[in-house]
């Protein structure tokens, strides 16, 4: 006897796995929760966490979501060409000369896109790609938001070399003095708060993380406020961006911040299960078929080795979701061509049955599938292409 079909099984019974779905009811509920947590501050949607134009356009059509934060300049230019939005910040500096030439050649793109810089060398790179006398390029200055409580101690992501108000003012002056550049924004991403769950480990480790995040948030609020005040004396900033899905409350509370970046909270991958402040609904799942029964309590699935980026470890592997009561084998994990699962529910699985899994990160699932099958009320609503399905690979 096979396991009883769940609503996802029934809605997709005519599809052959492997395939991926997005539950629109969960996606929309997560969007509502992001807006609630933002408390009126606009949210800039982080495209890397979605990587599907239909879903990006869906969330941008809602009040409270304003503009995209893209991870690639080529991606940003493409979205302008597709009419997705006229407000895009590229979150990472670019060394893509071709994309820079496309940006400079399009008045529409130049008006819509702000690129990221954190040093004069980035300005030099743009000049080298475009030549002197190029049209004005909108730039955003990135402030490093890591926490440095003691000399030599760095807590957070390794991003900008600009850490102090003095350093930010120096770079802002350099930008103002360089023809062809206009400083329009400031960004700081507090990865040690936004990307680190405070309820994912043991009680002791959770307490340590919460302690660190409170102190880091307080220090960053003071420092970011000082930086913004100093830079605003030199430039007419359109926006000050901060945060991420995991830090919406603390980032949004800062008067200096005008908008919050978020994206993963729409999809709710497993890395966002470990937060005490919010509990999003899993929206993106993928189905794999059972193709072997090597033992009574083991079922082997086809493919499945969709390992997330970041530090290698158990937190980066996909997790069985439905039917409940399954887990990966520690020796094999999720494999390139097969993924064994075990647990009480494995005994009832038969060849051809489906197992539903969740990815560890939000947008990377879209790099594995050409399409997302969208469900509403456990009914198949439509099928839409991912970036991959539109033959777009932005690195």
Automatic annotation (TrEMBL):
Coiled coil: none
Recorded superkingdom: Bacteria
InterPro entries associated with the record: Ala_racemase_N (IPR001608), D-amino_acid_metab_enzyme (IPR051466), PLP-binding_barrel (IPR029066)
Gene3D superfamilies tied to this protein: Alanine racemase
Alanine racemase N-terminal domain residues: 22-192
Protein name per the record: Amino acid deaminase/aldolase
Protein's organism: Amycolatopsis rhabdoformis
């Amino acid at each position: 006897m096979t396991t009883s079909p769940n609503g996802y099984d029934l809605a997709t019974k005519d599809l052959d796995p492997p395939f991926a779905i997005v539950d629109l009811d969960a996606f929309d509920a997560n969007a509502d929760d992001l807006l609630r947590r933002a408390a009126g501050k606009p949210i800039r949607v982080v495209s890397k966490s979605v990587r599907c134009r239909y879903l990006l356009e869906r969330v941008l059509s809602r009040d409270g979501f304003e503009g995209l934060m893209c991870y690639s300049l080529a991606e940003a230019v493409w979205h302008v060409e597709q009419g997705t939005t006229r407000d895009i910040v590229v979150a990472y500096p670019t060394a893509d000369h071709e994309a820079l030439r496309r940006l400079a050649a399009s008045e529409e793109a130049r008006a819509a896109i702000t690129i990221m810089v954190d040093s004069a060398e980035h300005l030099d790179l743009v000049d080298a790609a475009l030549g002197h006398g190029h049209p004005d390029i909108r730039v955003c200055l990135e402030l490093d938001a890591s926490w440095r409580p003691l000399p030599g101690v760095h807590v957070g992501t390794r991003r900008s070399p600009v850490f102090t108000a003095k350093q930010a003012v120096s770079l802002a002056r350099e930008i103002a003095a360089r023809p062809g550049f206009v400083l329009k924004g400031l960004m700081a991403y507090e990865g040690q708060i936004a990307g680190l769950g405070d309820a994912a480990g043991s009680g002791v480790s959770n307490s340590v993380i919460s302690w660190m995040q409170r102190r880091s948030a307080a220090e960053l609020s003071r420092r970011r406020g000082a930086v913004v005040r100093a830079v605003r004396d030199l430039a007419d900033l359109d926006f000050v961006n901060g945060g991420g899905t995991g830090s919406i409350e603390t980032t949004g509370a800062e008067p200096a911040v005008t908008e919050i970046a978020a994206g993963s909270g729409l999809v709710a991958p497993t890395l966002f299960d470990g937060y005490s402040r919010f509990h999003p609904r899993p929206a993106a799942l993928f189905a794999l078929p059972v193709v072997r029964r090597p033992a009574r309590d083991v079922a082997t699935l086809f493919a499945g080795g969709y390992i997330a980026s970041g530090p290698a470890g158990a937190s980066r592997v996909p997790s069985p979701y439905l039917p409940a009561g399954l887990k990966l084998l520690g020796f094999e994990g999720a494999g390139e061509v097969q993924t064994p699962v075990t647990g009480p529910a494995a005994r009832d699985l038969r060849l051809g049955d489906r197992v539903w899994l969740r990815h560890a990160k939000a947008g990377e699932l879209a790099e594995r599938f050409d399409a997302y099958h969208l469900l509403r009320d456990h009914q198949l609503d439509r099928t839409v292409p991912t970036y991959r399905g539109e033959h777009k690979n932005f690195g």
